[in-house]
Amino acid sequence: QPVVTQSSSASASLGSSVKLTCSLNSGHSNSIIAWHQQQPGKAPRYLMKVEGSGSYNKGSGVPDRFSGSISGADRYLSISNLQSEDEADYYCETWDNKYWVFGGGTKLTVL
Amino acid sequence: EVQLLESGGGLVETGGSLRLSCAASGFTFSSYAMTWVRLAPGKGLEWVSGITDNGENTYYADSVKGRFTISRDNAKSTLYLQMNILRAEDTALYYCARTLKWEHDYWGQGTLVTVSS
Question: Which residues are CB-contacts of B35 (< 8 A; sequence separation ≥ 6)?
Fold first, then answer.
């Protein structure tokens, strides 16, 4: 079963950029992952899928400020020109056969 | 517009049962697998259960296997989660989500389940 690891928190200033990391365990380093955003008090929102090749496909209406990338077993969510509404929990998710696994989430604070 | 509307949550005693529903609209329900995910207080998202588009195959997290049953009625565009032998640790917001290829691309607003002793 895959294991997905995320930092518990991150912070960055309004208007700046941030890169959130999702790490996959050995044996799953080529896995596809998805990023979801959960703003306070709201339902999760699908942001994008990041393939093992590094390509990414965003969900409907996701701003251009959001992008994905990879390096080895790490998957990244980059957000540029941070806005106050980007303050949220960000979850990485992957899938293996008959199980879906979420990372613990990263709480992003916009200063 | 894709819409998913959960219902059926509430307060239940330990050992009790609840049946959650998720009414889908805005897409061809029978063409998509569906999933239940929960968010417990102070915790992160946890996948609970999934079902294929035709309902033939179902999948469960170890934490709910043998106690929860996922099902669907494609004629009614509705997803269900029957939850039995509920425990305090099942207290959470329960979301239904549409499964695209394997990723969850649309989420409902959630329904709250509280299990008390």
Answer: A100, B47, B48, B49, B50, B51, B96, B97, B98, B99, B104
- Residue B57's identity, in one-letter code, is N
Among A8, A7, A15, which Cα is nearest to A111's?
A: A15
- Cross-chain CB nearest to A43 (options B47, B95, B103): B95
B103 touches chain A (CB under 8 A): yes
User: Are A47 and B99 in contact, with CB atoms under 8 Å apart?
Assistant: no
**Alpha-carbon gap, residue A92 to A87, rounded angstroms:** 16
CA nearest A100 in B: which residue?
B47
Give B13-31 pLDDT, tens digit per residue: 999 999 999 999 999 999 9
| Residues 35-74 in A contacting B (C-alpha not used; CB under 8 Å) | 36, 38, 43-46, 49, 59
Number of residues that make up chain A: 111
CA atoms within 13 A on the CB side of B57: 7
- Tell whether B59 lies on the interface with A, counting CB pairs under 8 A: yes
Interface check A89 vs B, CB under 8 A? yes
Q: Name the strand (E) or helix (H) holding B19.
A: strand B18-25
Q: What is the pLDDT of residues B84-111, one digit of tens each?
A: 999 999 999 999 999 988 899 999 999 9
Q: How far apart are CA A17 and CA A78, in angstroms?
A: 7
